[in-house]
Amino acid sequence: MDLTKQKKLDAFLLGILLIGMILALYMAFLGAPRERTMGDLQRIFYFHVPSGIVGLLAFAANFVASVMYLIKKDRKWDSLALSAAEVGVMFFMIVLVTGPIWAKPVWFVWWTWSPRLTSSLVLWLLYLAYMLVRAYVPDPERRAVMSAVFGIIAFLDAPIVFFSIRWWRDMHPSAMIEKGGIDPAMVPAFLTCSLVFLVLLVYVIRRRLFLESARVELERLERAANLVR
Amino acid sequence: MLGKVWAVLRKDLLIELRTKDSLNAMLFFGIVVLVVFNFALESLRDSIRTAVPGVLWVSFVFSGTLGLNRMFASEKENSCLQGLLMAPMDRGIVYLGKTLAAAIFMFIAEIAIFVCSLIFFNLTVWSEIPWLILVFSVGTLGFTAVGTLLSAISVNTRMREVLLPLILFPVVLPILVNAVEATNIILNGPDYRALKLPLAIMTTFTVIFGTVSYLMFDFVLED
After folding, report:
1. Which residue in B has a C-alpha nearest to residue A121's C-alpha?
2. Cα distance between residue A111 and residue A96, in whole Å
3. pLDDT digits 0-9 by tens, A16-44
4. Residue A189 or residue A172, greater confidence
5. What is the DSSP string of chain B?
6. CB distance A129–B166 less than 8 Å?
7. Hey, is the C-beta of A129 within 8 angstroms of any chain B C-beta?
8. What's the rounded mean pLDDT across residues A115-119?
9. pLDDT tier at A5, thresholds 50, 70, 90
């Protein structure tokens, strides 16, 4: 796809996002029923869970891009891996901020070392470490290889982290949702929010990718200019 | 293949035997950590036995990180790494040799740190020793399996020694959690059958990351 088509697609996605976000806000705050015990507090769920889901998708995209980079050695895959990791860290940031806001009034503590909380935090730390690897390797080629290797390690580590603390007592609502499921009246709001977050994920990654390819191109031009001079 | 792994391992063991650079640092640092924890956990004086597994593994991991940092930093001096890479063998062999060497150094440090902790924390162990050796060796292997790969990554960065703990600790968390759990079962638990789960997870971790690191080691070594 050429640049104009890319820009058109981005504009289209942005339009969907604007409409979708208003719809999602309406569904989450007005459309969905009030939860019986937690009241309006429960509505944070419509933002907390979708962020977590798309954050995980972003990390999965980072893994795929890292593997592809090691196979193809094409800078594009490296740019995608970087964009996905950054965006994933951002979404997990939302998860880690909205979680305690909800937990304080419901559990009476900001934080508890339950399996899901701990693994989310560790996952976030793993991808911050990924960003650190990127930050400290100056040479672009080496940086791409090193971070791809670390990205693969980080992604493989995530399930092991989860299972190694799985037997700790879990008070996270997801354990209850796995058993009983959520109220059918809440499903439309949840699905809308998830879809909008998904579009947001795609859009933000695309924008980040655009920025990164511009930077790579600039780097290439500068190198060429230096050679000429 | 085993002969080649042994050659790399033997080289590192010989260097260490003659210089004792990293082992001295590892032992000293591990014991310092124990002393620091003794002050930090002053309030737990009466139930210190429950805190020992955590304290032990934190000091193991800290001293192990020192050793891992030296693993490739020493190769950088006088371009030793180039020489090692020119040897006619698979890069994975270098990884296996280095991992085993790192694990052996760490294990020696662990024994010394553990003996010191017996004195500092007034512990008595006899029948527990074989089990502890089992848990220590599996945990150490898992730690060095991924540590060696990440050490090879961090040695090529601007921050070198600083970066390794930052990227290593989040990754080895499963090892740390399960090793503490297993050590706790041995020292304080009534039933050794509970050891099965932490040991299984640590073994899985070691096998997965050992294989992945073996396969990817070629990428991280600078030509």
Report:
1. B170
2. 10
3. 999 999 999 998 888 888 887 788 888 88
4. A189
5. -HHHHHHHHHHHHHHHHHH-HHHHHHHHHHHHHHHHHHHHTGGGGGGHHHHHHHHHHHHHHHHHHHHHHHHHHHHHGGGHHHHHHHSSS-HHHHHHHHHHHHHHHHHHHHHHHHHHHHHHTT---STTHHHHHHHHHHHHHHHHHHHHHHHHHHTTSSSGGGHHHHHHHHHTHHHHHHHHHHHHHHHH-S-GGGGHHHHHHHHHHHHHHHHHHHHHHHHHS--
6. yes
7. yes
8. 86
9. confident
Q: Which amino acid is at A101?
A: I
Averaged over A180-207, what is the pLDDT? 88
Alpha carbon of residue B148 to chain centroid: 9
**Please, are residues A87 and A58 in contact by the beta-carbon 8 Å criterion?**
yes
Backbone dihedral region of A174: left (phi > 0), alpha (psi from -120 to 50 degrees) or beta? alpha
Mean pLDDT of A143-170: 85
Question: How much is the pTM?
Answer: 0.90
Q: What's the whole-number average pLDDT of chain B? A: 90
- Residue spans of the domains in chain B: they are 2-220
* pLDDT given at position B101: 94
The region, left, alpha or beta by phi > 0 then psi within -120 to 50, assigned to residue B202 is alpha
Rounded-to-integer distance, Cα A36 and Cα B10, Å: 68
Interhelix angle A140-164/B196-220, rounded to 10 degrees, is 170
- Band of the pLDDT at A176, cuts 50, 70, 90? low
Q: Does A148 touch chain B (CB under 8 A)?
A: yes
Which residues of chain A lie closer than 8 angstroms to B170, CB-CB? 122, 125-126, 129, 154, 157
Helix (H) or strand (E) holding B40: helix B21-40
Nearest chain B residue to A158 by CA: give it.
B171
The DSSP output letter for A119 is H
Beta-carbon separation of B153 and A125 below 8 A: no
ipTM: 0.91
Residue B166 has pLDDT above 90, yes or no: yes
Distances (CA, A) of A32 to A105, A150, B3: 21, 41, 67
pLDDT of residue A34: 83
Q: Where are the domains of chain A?
A: 16-32+41-171+181-228
Distance separating alpha carbons of residues B59 and B109, to the nearest angstrom: 10
